[in-house]
Write a structure and sequence with these properties.
By secondary structure, the chain is of the alpha+beta class. The chain has two domains: 44 residues, no CATH class; 105 residues, Sandwich (Immunoglobulin-like). 19% of the residues lie in helices and 38% in strands. The chain contains two helices and twelve strands. Strands 4, 5, 6, 7, 9 and 10 form a six-stranded antiparallel beta sheet that branches. Strand 1 and strand 2 form a beta hairpin. The longest helix has 25 residues. It is flat.
């Protein structure tokens, strides 16, 4: 696990502790840094806080979306509520094989000519209707998504904000209309 001082240093200082020509950064303590971005009227004081991540158990079930089988792999709660989905089943396997063939072809010719690489199969998962609700009525909004990756072409992460209030005991995650009711103990946060 990365310690707080290393995280702060990596976030703020980069590799050499200096930014551009008129920028200067300094680590003041294990969790605090001074950042001067060259503005004559201000500098920044950055505090880094370690936030626990709770992994909420998910029952292994699949749902269908436009002929594709989807599995909710995990739900993590920290500064976000993060849903991890993946495409599974025969159609996902077929599309993965097609993607891998396109990738091989691209590495042989397209990479040298400046063509864009093929899209990750998981990019279609951005169209899956997803919602997060809880037992306290919190309004969650999709903040960002991330599709694919080397070795995980069918992985999709959807990040929702805000983080759940500490009084929440149940999240209701809907994937393509199928609800997953997820509970945890109060000390999970």
């Amino acid at each position: 696990m990365t310690n707080l001082e290393s995280a702060t240093s990596a976030i703020v200082l980069g590799t050499d502790g200096r930014g551009g020509e008129d920028q200067w950064r300094a680590l003041l303590s294990e969790d605090t840094a001074h950042v001067d971005l060259g503005d004559p009227d201000q500098v920044f004081l950055v505090h880094v806080v370690a936030v626990p991540r709770a992994r909420v158990p998910v029952e292994g079930s699949t749902v269908e979306f436009e002929g594709l089988e989807l599995r909710l792999v995990s739900v993590a709660v920290d500064n976000f509520v993060t849903l991890e989905l993946e495409g599974v089943g025969p159609l996902a396997a077929e599309r993965r094989s097609a993607y891998e063939a396109e990738w091989r072809a691209w590495t042989e010719t397209g990479a040298q000519t400046g063509e864009a690489p093929p899209s990750w199969p998981a990019e279609v998962l951005a169209q899956v209707p997803l919602t997060v609700n809880d037992d306290r009525g919190t309004q969650y909004q999709l903040n960002s998504g991330e599709a694919g990756g080397t070795g995980t072409p069918w992985r999709y992460l959807a990040r929702f904000r805000p983080a759940p209030p500490s009084t929440v005991r149940e999240l209701v995650v809907s994937v393509a209309g199928f609800e997953h009711r997820l509970t945890w103990t109060p000390d999970a946060f």
